[in-house]
Amino acid sequence: MGMMQMEVRQMATAFLFFNEDILMMKKSSSRITDVEFWSGLGGHMEPEELNFPKKACMREIYEESGFEENDLENLDLKYILMRVKEDEIRQQFVYFGKLKRTTFVSSDEGELHWISQGMIKNLRLSKVVSFMLEHYFENPNLDHVMIGTITVDRDEEPQIQWSELKDPKVF
Question: What does the pLDDT average to over 28-54?
Answer without folding.
Answer: 85
